[in-house]
Specification:
It is elongated, with a radius of gyration of 21 Å. The protein folds into two domains: about 5-115 and about 235-295, FAD/NAD(P)-binding domain; about 125-230, FAD/NAD(P)-binding domain (3-Layer(bba) Sandwich), CATH 3.50.50.60. The model has no long low-confidence stretch (mean pLDDT about 90). It is an alpha/beta fold. Helix 3 runs parallel beside helix 4 (about 180-190). A hairpin with a 3-residue loop joins strand 5 and strand 6 (about 100-110). Strands 1, 2, 3, 4, 5, 6 and 17 form a seven-stranded mixed beta sheet that branches. A five-stranded parallel beta sheet has the order 8-15-9-10-11, with helices on one face. It has helices at about 15-25, 60-75, 150-160, 180-190, 250-260, 265, 275-295; strands at about 5-10, 30, 75-80, 80-85, 90-95, 100-110, 110-115, 130, 145-150, 165-170, 190-195, 200-205, 210-215, 220-225, 230, 235, 260.
């Protein structure tokens, strides 16, 4: 069982930023990531508020640059799902299915998990065509795609997918809840339809691989056929692996000094790349200072 200076749980923008700064401070962060480098950023159609890219940059391209930065610095990324983080008096235990690592400090950059569409029964045989992100279907072409939701994510997903597909946004409410800029761009697309006051009440299989959505609206009920369905109705902090146990006051004080939440997992609706990067930078600087003071 090894001992790490700092373990970072999650390798999205916050975790990446923290790892870069920690390396600059002479520390060796160990990063655990359960899926892929970049987190939700890989879904972004265009990042327009990240300094240094006046024309904007796609999420995939920005992630590629971040991955390159990690590689140049020699940051170790372990692709394992963290199942538990426990705190003792002067160490953390970070557990995965195959490893247990002791850490002096832990940064939680685990991001968020999607809110599920629990009001509708989804047949198991259809689940492979229903997703909560667009990354798995970014390569599809000339398909009909339905998106449930009316916020920034739903509209951004639609703009990413409409380049090669026909997209229908289904909103329970009468108006979009997204940025006016996204609403304007969607309105300019001939391949995106916004359907207000519509609730999906049933999902069934149709001909071939199609999905048939039963919908309720002010006019009654209707059916919409799509090839893929994206659910974008919100997200919750991903903290299921955090232990609620403590080892007394000493553990609590240690946790407050050396365990920090960074990025989307703590920012609620302020899920922006620049915010997450700033969080990672601040946390890494604080941890480096604390370790210097205790004479690590």
């Amino acid at each position: 069982m090894g001992i790490a200076d700092v373990v970072i749980v999650g390798c999205g923008p916050a975790g990446i930023s923290a790892a870069i700064q920690l390396k600059r401070a002479g520390l060796e962060p160990l990063v655990f990531e359960k899926e892929r480098v970049g987190g939700l950023l890989v879904n972004a159609n265009l990042v327009e508020n990240y300094p240094g890219f006046p024309e904007g940059i796609s999420g995939i391209d920005l992630v590629a640059l971040m991955k390159e930065h990690l590689t140049v610095l020699g940051v170790e990324v372990v692709f394992e799902d963290v199942t538990k983080v426990e705190v003792g008096h002067d160490r953390f235990l970070v557990k995965t299915a195959g490893n247990t690592v002791q850490a002096r400090c832990v940064l939680i950059a685990s991001g968020t998990s999607p809110k599920k569409l629990v009001s509708v029964a989804i047949p198991r045989e259809l689940s492979d065509r229903i997703t909560y992100e667009i990354y798995p279907i970014r390569s599809v072409r000339e398909k009909r795609i339905g998106i449930v939701g009316a916020g920034d994510a739903a509209f951004d997903y639609a703009l990413s997918l409409e380049k090669q597909n026909d997209v229908t946004i289904l909103s329970r409410g009468p108006e979009p809840r997204c940025l006016p800029l996204l609403r304007e761009r969607v309105g300019m697309s001939s391949r995106i339809s916004f359907v207000p006051d519509t609730e999906v009440t049933a999902i069934e299989g149709g001909r071939g691989d199609e999905l048939v959505l039963g919908c309720r609206n002010p006019g009654g009920v209707s059916k919409i056929s799509v090839d893929h369905l994206v659910i974008a109705i919100g997200r919750n902090p991903e903290l299921g692996f955090m232990s609620r146990q403590s080892a007394g006051l000493g553990a609590i004080q240690y946790r407050e000094r050396f365990q920090l939440l960074i990025g989307d997992v703590r920012r609620g609706r302020m899920r922006q790349t620049a915010v997450a990067v700033g969080d990672g930078m601040i946390a890494a600087m604080a941890i480096a200072r604390e370790l210097r003071e205790i004479g690590k």
